[in-house]
Amino acid sequence: MLEHGGRLRAAAQRFGIPVNDWLDLSTGIAPEPWPVPAIPLDAWARLPEDDDGLEQAACACYGAAHALPVAGSQAAIQLLPRLLPAGTVGVLAPSYAEHAQAWQRAGHRLLRLAAGEIEAQLDALDALVLANPNNPSGRLFAPAQLLDWHERLYRRGGCLLVDEAFMDCTPEFSLAAHSDKPGLIVLRSFGKFFGLAGVRLGFVLAEAELLEQLRQRLGPWAVSGPARAIGLQALDESSAAARRLRGLRLQAAGQRLAALLRERGLAPDGGAALFQWLRIPDAAELHEFLARRGILVRLFEQPASLRFGLPGDEAGWQRLAQALDDYR
Amino acid sequence: MLEHGGRLRAAAQRFGIPVNDWLDLSTGIAPEPWPVPAIPLDAWARLPEDDDGLEQAACACYGAAHALPVAGSQAAIQLLPRLLPAGTVGVLAPSYAEHAQAWQRAGHRLLRLAAGEIEAQLDALDALVLANPNNPSGRLFAPAQLLDWHERLYRRGGCLLVDEAFMDCTPEFSLAAHSDKPGLIVLRSFGKFFGLAGVRLGFVLAEAELLEQLRQRLGPWAVSGPARAIGLQALDESSAAARRLRGLRLQAAGQRLAALLRERGLAPDGGAALFQWLRIPDAAELHEFLARRGILVRLFEQPASLRFGLPGDEAGWQRLAQALDDYR
């Protein structure tokens, strides 16, 4: 298994600090959960039914023609490489590492590409996989650029997979509206923006035929009843104003985090609303320094860097600021 | 997608009866849900962590050496055929139809075998797949018989997959205690016995190496936080007495259902605590007759038969009895 953020139990054990005493900034998950609506007993008790309106709500919310609910976009990341014939796959690097691993395990030939290398390599690829905005770099790709790459890939029977896990605060960059084009696959995450990562919900936006293949491979009842109920409520048109407000608050929090780091001589190299990314030679030392103070951030070794998630309350902001002051 | 019980919305539309007016006996899910414990906010909000004790609780409850939690045993049914090299697979028939479909789609050669045909065909098989007790026939296979078949299969590098989705009321028939033998795979369902099918939780009991392969194919966070929290509570030793009581009540209800049918000249051909199975030439007519009265049972075409689940309250029992009286 790859290393991920959020492994608080392991950190608690390693640093001898009780789980409840940590400030966990190791994930890119919104720190304040969307209020969980009352879950009808039937959602727990009965087999989930597909025709509950969740797909339609997701389509309307994301502006897509077709949407397949999955138990977290990770479920699609695991499966998609196995639906396509073996080929040469360009994967943005650094990025969310599960993509590269899944394509490699499925028998594809992997090219890890920096953003600046994609254009030159594109015509040698059968598939291109990237996250937009990227994680952890925060780099945003322009839709026109991605649509051009998709067009060139598809002309040769290839495909473009765009993981939009962190797109909710910048919907103008989304390819959702184009996702019914053959050869274009868009992944959306529910848990990050809504701060409900434990729910396990995500969506694949793509042409209907591919979604049907995925549906068959996942089998019936792939998404839990409570996840469907929460998704329906949160993605519904009636929640649109609350979603917009949440987006604005998260963007402001992201800017505050960037400023907090910058003011301490730790100017981020990139970021999105939900995280900031910091390349520094002493990344491992700072990670350890913060962990000994019960602050967990995400350490990357290649390149040496840290990803900071958003503190969830004022005490958390102060605690992070103080610890960084102490480090410098 | 195969036909399944529990598709109440579709039935409501077809028969013009509102969803809430139905008596749904179309599944083998316990009608009274295990009381859902309070779900900690963190279970919704945070990424689920593997080291929460759920695996240990499942091992202790089922009496197995190793257990992998999955999002419903269906998730394992989808995946297991793809972990094994293509071969000849004997699948008990009739049985839960997802098994045969999954093995066929994964490229295996399928032999559909009646229970009485297994012994004669066993030495030609690379894998044998059956449910114990079987669904819908209720047939129970003796552990000694299954262990003998496993031994013979494994000697030639083959394997035995036993789906124990309906085993909770007859644990003396379970192979869980033997599930660390290479070549033996046992599936357990959480939602049926506990009446919480929407939660999506199940377990694969097998040798550690196979579970690790499955874990890698499923990827991280395959089971939701709430499902893990409920599973932990329900499978814990502290719930053992409540589980035993539930088992006794379900067995009594199963006997009541068998008697109710028998007294109306519809003696079941088999059953388990959670359902009774009735082979009759006029299965389709009786299905339709009941549906027009808002009672949904599961119709099978091959062989022509009906599966009756348990009514959840006294009004439901009376309604079923009255409808069957009216039919005869």
Summary of the model, kept short:
The structure is a homodimer of 328-residue chains. Chain A has 328 residues and is α/β, with parallel strands linked by helices. The first copy, chain A, has helices at residues 8-15, 41-45, 54-62, 73-79, 97-105, 118-121, 143-155, 208-218, 225-235, 240-262, 283-292, 314-327; strands at 23-24, 68-70, 88-92, 109-113, 127-131, 159-163, 184-189, 202-205, 270-272, 275-279, 295-296, 298-300, 305-309.
Characterize the structure shown.
Chain A is of the alpha/beta class and 328 residues long. Chain A contains twelve helices and 13 strands. The first copy, chain A, has helices at residues 8-15, 41-45, 54-62, 73-79, 97-105, 118-121, 143-155, 208-218, 225-235, 240-262, 283-292, 314-327; strands at residues 23-24, 68-70, 88-92, 109-113, 127-131, 159-163, 184-189, 202-205, 270-272, 275-279, 295-296, 298-300, 305-309. In chain A, the strands form three sheets. Chain A has a seven-stranded mixed beta sheet, with helices on both faces. Chain A has a four-stranded antiparallel beta sheet with strand order 9-10-13-12. Chain A has a two-stranded parallel sheet with strand order 1-11. The model of chain A has no long low-confidence stretch (mean pLDDT 96). Chains A and B meet through α1, α2, α4, α5 and α8 of A and α1, α2, α4, α5 and α9 of B.
